[in-house]
Structures are given as structure tokens and as C-alpha cells.
Sequence to fold (339 residues):
Amino acid sequence: MARLRYITGDILEIAEQKPLLAAYLRPLGSLKELSFGAGRLVSDFSWAYRTAFPSYVVSYDRRSRFILRTLMSLQSSARWFRFLKNSYLSDVAVREPSLVEAIHRPFFDRNIGATRRAGLMTGHFELFYSLFGPLQTDKVMAGQGVGLCRVSGKNDEDFEIKLFRRETFKREGGVTLELTFNNVAILWLTFSLVRSGHEILIKVGGIQSKIGDCRELVRDATHALHGIQPRLLLIEALRAIAGQIRCSGIECISKENHIYQSWRYRSKKTINAEYNQLWLLAGGKENANGNFDIPSFVEEKPIEERPSKKRNEYRRRAALLEDMRQQIHKEIFDAGLAQ
Fold:
């Protein structure tokens, strides 16, 4: 009851400050008199509200927008709040209050509504936990990450790929692959895991490069990788993960459907990456949603079909990729992941 009085009083206080919202906000004040289901809704909403806004420093405008958006997608918001409150994400939400509001923001695809967004987000975090276990999930969610592989370049350059979650990419997906080149992070690929019936799917929501002019870094990295583009290396790492978790398909966001093409961000964010071109280069085909499906496995051409002058380079590429795949396989299964 104390929590109910807290949230009810705050809602009515906001309503008094924002008369135009009063018609939407006041009904929540009487939910305590309704059924048990409504009481549970108020309890979940109260927890979500206090977690999202632990301090009254947050403006009335922002708090009232949160309440209004909750009312506009009540069922989806309630599902998300309840999941956060009752899952391992409750502690994460305390450290990262904006996670509570994620249901009100675009996620993966700008065309996805609140109902599908709630299903996608809850599904990802449930599936990730079931595949990767509590220990590794904690490391990923805390930003510490899990090292998947480390390979050497042509002149012993150091490349490492880690799996982690960072708030910066939270709207593009639930987890991120990071590529570092000589201890400098140069590329991030963000994706989510989805269960569709008995199948597991991967949805890639974004690929970002280091802020600023990183062309020289990418060029040097490509040279060190025997001609493999860093972005294609990350895609191959994603395919290796897909193989280990028995993923049956990878859907990649198109530039047109990227969340930063949403009206909310269009004037604030710029998409520099050529998404569509990259997915086509990776063997992708446009699907009915306007996104691209890329194969989860691509068979290499026999070395005999390569130009004779470049066969040694292709052998070195193949060896590097195989080393990466074996390390990812070992890290996943040695850590007891994806059982």
C-alpha cells in the first residue's frame, strides 16, 4: 500500500501540473479499488516508475511523458515492467534506469510497434540467459563482456572480439560484438536473439565504427587481416556464434528501417554505414520486411578456383577465419554456454 500511495500521489501531482494530461493520468489513481489484476499492474508500474526515476530531480515533463506513453501502450508496457521486475534484469535496471523506458523507444526496426517490441526484448533476454547461463550473462550485462577470440594479423597485429552489452547500442539490439585492433575498439555489431517456434533467429540492428575519421585504421586492419574487411570479419564471427547456438537464420536491418530513420531520431542521428551494400556483400537477399536475410553459413570456394597469384593470401585468410571459429567454439562450450 505504501508503494501504491507513492505512485498514486505522484501521478495526481503531475496531473495538477499538466492539466491537459489529467484526463489520462487520473484514472490510475483509482486502480487500487479495482481487481487483483489491476492491483498487480499498479504494483509493477510503481516499481517501474521508482526505478526509472529514483530522484525527483527528473522534470515533470519527462515523468508525465513516461506515464502517458505507458497508458498509450498499457499491455506492452505492463508486460515489460513485469518481466524486468521479476527477472535477472531487475538489478540491471537499478544501475541503468533507462532500461525501464526501453519499451517506449524504437528497438531493432523502426516499423515495429510496442507489442512486437515487448516480445522481441523479453524474448531476447530470456533466450540469452538460457543459452549463456547466469555467470556469462552477468558479465555481458555489466559491460565487462566475454572474450570470444583473439587472432594475430600479418605482422602480429592483435585482434580481439568480445561479446558485451553497452547502453550506447541498446536500441539496436540486446548484445554487441566488439572488434579491437591493437587494443583500440574500431567496430561494433549489435544484434538480438529471437525464438520463433522451435527455431532460433538472429536479428542484427546495427553496425557502428569508431567515431571520427577511422578510414586509415580500417585500411590498416584490412591489410593486417590478409585483405579481410573488419566488418566482414565480425559477420563471420556472428555466423560462428549462429552455428554454435543452432541458429536457423540471420535478419539484418536495412538502412531504411534502421531505428535512427524513425521520426524521433531522424534530425538528431546520422547513419553513415552503407547497410544494404554490406548485407548484399555478405550474400544477403532483401526480404518482405525490407530487411536483408544473410546466410548463416557460406561455403568457401575451393582454393583451386582462386587466382594462382593470390592463393597463398586466400590460404592465410582461411587459416585466420578457421582459427577464429575454433576459438569461438571453444569459448562457448568450455564456458558451458549454449548447451
In short: The CA atoms of residues 43 and 332 lie 38 Å apart. The longest helix spans residues 114-141. Residues 2-104 form one domain.
